[in-house]
Amino acid sequence: MCVLFAVLSAALLLTLIWQRIQYKKLLREINYISNRLETLSITSENGFVLLPTDCTCMKKLGAVLNTLLQDFYTSKAEFEQTQKAMAQFLTNISHDIRTPLTVLKGNSEMLAAKADELSVLENIHTMAVKIDRKADDLITTINDYFTMSKIASGDLPLKLQKENISRLCHDTILEYYDLLEKQQFEVDLQIPDTPIFAYTDRDALQRILKNLIDNAIRYGSDGQYLSLRLNAVKEKSVVEIEDHGKGMSPQQQKQIFTRNYTTAPKSSGSGLGLAISKHLASQIGAELRVQSIPNEQTVFSIIMKS
């Protein structure tokens, strides 16, 4: 009886040990699959799950995962190819449109100038001015699409280096002096006398600044107030542009950097300016934020590493 009990106990113990070994082996294989999928999600490697196992269930799981991964890589390659083709198509279209548009703009400018000089009917003068203004809008839109396609295709050259952004802020706002004075804006400049430097691309940063100032003038004209502030805080340089226009709701603030989103009437604005600014900010290692209190103030902030 004792011998039988000992044999049964030994068999039970061996079974438990075998099950324990199988359990640990299963855990190792599941951990391998988890780590492998995590690695593939972080890197751009088109890898697979290669699991040497004698477990039928794990073999089936590995086969299913590899089939899904193959489908994903195929769809990803097709998407990247389509995206690249679309960007190239947009670039070609922009090039083709730019030349006749330049001619159109030249003639619309001359037409508007002649209408000012000559005694023409009021409705003809209005039409000439309107044609010239729409030509400007069209050029801006085409240039925005052209810039966006270059950013998307990675063809926009950037030269990151140490730049005096105090001077850049001064130079940029100076270009708007006549327009701000004409529209009777109160301008508040807070730029320290001591130069502030940041590691950035001069052209890209100036493009962002101009987009934000254009927006402040266009959509903040109700408040007739524009402030440009520059500060250096904890190894970061912060440029803030504030207007006192109608502002944005919290929902609009979430969407304002989305491509083709605009708070303007449908007949004006392509909704690309802030999307371009957001992408450019990302490419120069900066952060672009917005805070708005409707009918009080809207502040766009560019945060850069000094």
Portion of residues in beta strands equals 15-25%
Q: Could you give the distance between the termini?
A: 84 Å
SSE ordering: HHHEHHEEHEEHHEE
Strand order of the largest sheet: 2-4-5-7-6
Give a short account of the largest sheet: 5 strands, mixed
| Morphology | elongated
Instruction: Return the structural class.
Output: alpha+beta
Would you kindly provide a written description of the structure presented here, covering whatever features stand out?
By secondary structure, the protein is an alpha+beta fold. The protein has eight helices and seven strands, in the order H-H-H-E-H-H-E-E-H-E-E-H-H-E-E. It has helices spanning 2-42, 56-117, 122-153, 165-174, 177-182, 202-219, 250-255, 273-283, and strands at 161-164, 186-190, 197-200, 225-233, 236-243, 287-293, 297-305. The strands form two sheets. It has a five-stranded mixed beta sheet. The protein has a two-stranded antiparallel sheet with strand order 1-3. Helix 2 (56-117) packs antiparallel against helix 3. The termini are far apart.
SSE topology:
Blueprint: H1 2-42, H2 56-117, H3 122-153, E1 161-164, H4 165-174, H5 177-182, E2 186-190, E3 197-200, H6 202-219, E4 225-233, E5 236-243, H7 250-255, H8 273-283, E6 287-293, E7 297-305
Parallel strand pairs: 2-4
Antiparallel strand pairs: 1-3, 4-5, 5-7, 6-7
Helix pairs in contact: 2-3, 3-8, 4-6, 6-8
Brief description of this entry?
The chain has 306 residues and is an alpha+beta fold. The protein is 61% helix and 15% strand.
Characteristic key phrases:
306 residues; alpha+beta; five-stranded mixed sheet; two-stranded antiparallel sheet; 7 strands; 61% helix
